[in-house]
Inverse folding.
């Protein structure tokens, strides 16, 4: 037996590895299994080049749990190591990197230290985060001479022992003696969960435990003529070694893309709307499949659905800054060996390769959407309500994507018809302008609540857009900045006659100024002056006697602030303010000056409540009083 001390000056190296090497201790399993995969892949490469001419045999990596012995073992049949290589790669290279990390760590904050982890070959030493002792057994693939297998052992101090081993199979086994603080890693469900998370698509088969399956018994059938089955216990392989994104798109059927989507998200029973297969090898390597999911409601928009891999090793599902922000709402997989495995997200966000990857993904998504729009507009329109949130988010947040998307972004009106931005501009430009010749885009965000306003606009020959999505307030703001001489106004933000000006539209009033002033006094006694201000307008006799409108700017800012990003802190908490527009030409209003005071008040109260009811503003005692008054009028 050979004893030794690793040549490090930093005595607190293991405490730092245990506490700070990774943000999450569970990463150790990914690191050790990835090392086993690397060793196996290297052997395959040597065999394909003729440098290794022995039998490859079964290359399955085995993960073994012994709860009684409190050990977890990761075993491979890869290239293995001899004693010289163990001393070189385990004692010298990895530990010198670890010491360098520790020294740099001392001069940096924890956040800064996390960002430099990827520069050090520390994967093997992550095992000490959960172990009181680690044993390594290895036998090299090299066959010249009588090369003994080797055992290396360390108890989490700079001291180690190395000796001959009786191991007779090629490859390496790492045995972790799990410490008391981490005994949850001795639970089968926990290890299975971690393997599913980190190793689901590794390119070498990984076995963990066994599973029971039913197999037909040859030549035997039951009384109904069905084959009899028997229960068979088989090794449980936890990974798919050839995931779909590694195959050529031309060789994949649409059904396979859908099946893979459900493999990624087994609890999502909806079919994806469509997919984008990423495949590039210059100026960086990138493969992957992105899916546009079907969104049932605004509350189902979840991030953390894109899984990031490096050479089929899971890295993270928190991809903000790695892919464009608006595409973090998509589902799927991205795999790139150019993305470092063990670095913090802040490091990834500043990495030049990652920035190029982000730009490439944006371009590919825009290409796919434009292709779908041009190829079959009818199908594109049918999917629009589901995909518009992704497109709008992209146009709001990414100027380059906006330039592409303005060709295929759609506007939908309240009649269910779709228009491109250019088509809609042509559709309304002769009929919907204000006094300054600015184009007015009328819109509704709730068909039911704003029905009367929509109908009033349509009766005048105007078109109304339906903008009822979660991002529409932000999207409208973006479009106003991009479209010259244009303004978006909700259909109930003002009376139509105030918004859109036509020649010869001016109407005389049936009330003189004195009558208006007198009625205003009565109105002010009956209405909530904190919520409403009163305006008298000369409108058509067929228009409503009283209309409630809301300031477009303030309402929109409140909505944007509620969604996030409004830029006006606290605005969402401000009380709503409305205008009460009194139509001086409606017969009921025009007749008010002739009525007795009590009758005036009763009529005004009824009209005021009807207007509030149409805006869903009549509640509680006021609603109860309105019902009683209505019954009295009917009687």
């Amino acid at each position: 037996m050979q004893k030794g001390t690793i040549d490090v000056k930093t005595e607190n190296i293991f405490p730092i590895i245990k506490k700070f090497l990774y943000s999450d201790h569970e990463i150790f399993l990914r690191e050790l299994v990835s090392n086993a995969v690397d060793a196996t892949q290297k052997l395959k490469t040597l065999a394909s080049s003729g440098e290794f001419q022995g039998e490859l045999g079964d290359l399955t990596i085995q993960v073994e749990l012994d709860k009684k012995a409190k050990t977890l073992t990761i075993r491979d049949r890869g290239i293995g190591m001899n004693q010289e290589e163990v001393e070189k790669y385990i004692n010298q290279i990895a530990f010198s990197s670890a010491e360098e990390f520790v020294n740099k760590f001392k001069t940096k904050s924890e956040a800064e230290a996390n960002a430099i982890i990827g520069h050090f070959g520390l994967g093997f030493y992550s095992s000490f985060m959960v172990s009181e002792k680690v044993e390594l057994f290895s036998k090299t693939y090299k066959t010249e001479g009588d090369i003994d297998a080797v055992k290396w052992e360390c108890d989490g101090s700079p001291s180690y022992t190395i000796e001959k081993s009786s191991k007779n199979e090629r490859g390496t086994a790492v045995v972790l003696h799990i410490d008391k603080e981490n005994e949850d890693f001795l639970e089968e469900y926990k290890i299975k969960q971690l393997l599913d998370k980190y190793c689901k698509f590794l390119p070498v088969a990984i076995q963990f435990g066994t599973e029971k399956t039913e197999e037909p018994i040859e030549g035997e059938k039951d009384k109904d003529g069905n084959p009899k089955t028997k229960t068979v216990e088989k090794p449980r392989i936890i990974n798919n070694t050839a995931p779909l994104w590694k195959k050529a798109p031309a060789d994949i059927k649409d059904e396979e893309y859908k099946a893979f989507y459900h493999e990624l998200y087994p609890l999502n029973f909806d079919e994806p709307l469509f997919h984008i297969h990423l495949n590039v090898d210059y100026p960086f390597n990138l493969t992957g499949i992105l899916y546009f999911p079907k969104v049932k409601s605004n509350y189902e928009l979840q991030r953390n659905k894109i899984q990031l891999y490096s050479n089929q090793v899971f890295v993270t599902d928190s991809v903000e800054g790695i892919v464009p922000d608006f595409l973090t709402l998509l589902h799927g997989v991205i795999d790139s060996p150019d993305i470092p495995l063990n670095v913090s997200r802040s490091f990834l966000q500043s990495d030049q390769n990652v920035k190029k990857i982000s730009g490439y993904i944006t371009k590919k998504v825009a290409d796919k959407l434009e292709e779908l729009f041009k190829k079959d507009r009818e199908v594109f329109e049918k999917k629009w309500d589901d995909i518009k949130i992704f497109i709008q988010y992209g146009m709001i947040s990414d100027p380059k994507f906006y330039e592409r998307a303005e060709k295929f972004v759609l506007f939908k009106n309240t009649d269910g018809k779709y228009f491109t931005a250019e088509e809609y501009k042509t559709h309304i430009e002769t009929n919907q302008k204000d006094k300054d010749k600015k184009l007015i885009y009328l819109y509704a965000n709730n068909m039911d609540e704003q029905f009367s306003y929509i109908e009033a606009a349509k009766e005048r020959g105007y078109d109304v857009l339906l903008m009822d999505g979660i991002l529409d307030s932000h999207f409208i703001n973006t479009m106003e900045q991009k479209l010259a001489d244009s303004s978006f106004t909700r259909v109930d933000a003002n009376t139509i006659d105030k918004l859109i000006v036509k020649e010869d539209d001016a109407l005389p009033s049936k009330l003189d100024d004195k009558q208006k002033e007198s009625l205003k006094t009565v109105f002010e006694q009956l209405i909530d002056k904190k919520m409403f201000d009163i305006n008298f307008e000369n409108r058509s006799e067929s228009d409503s006697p009283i209309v409630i409108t809301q300031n477009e700017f303030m309402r929109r800012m409140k909505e944007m602030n509620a969604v996030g990003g409004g830029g006006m802190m606290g605005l969402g908490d401000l009380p709503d303010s409305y205008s009460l527009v009194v139509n001086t030409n409606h017969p009921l209003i025009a007749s008010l000056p002739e009525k007795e005071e009590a009758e005036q008040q009763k009529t005004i109260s009824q009209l005021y409540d009807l207007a509030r009811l149409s805006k869903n503003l009549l509640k509680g005692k006021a609603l109860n009083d309105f019902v009683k008054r209505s019954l009295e009028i009917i009687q």
Notes: The chain has 19 helices and 22 strands. The radius of gyration is 35 Å.
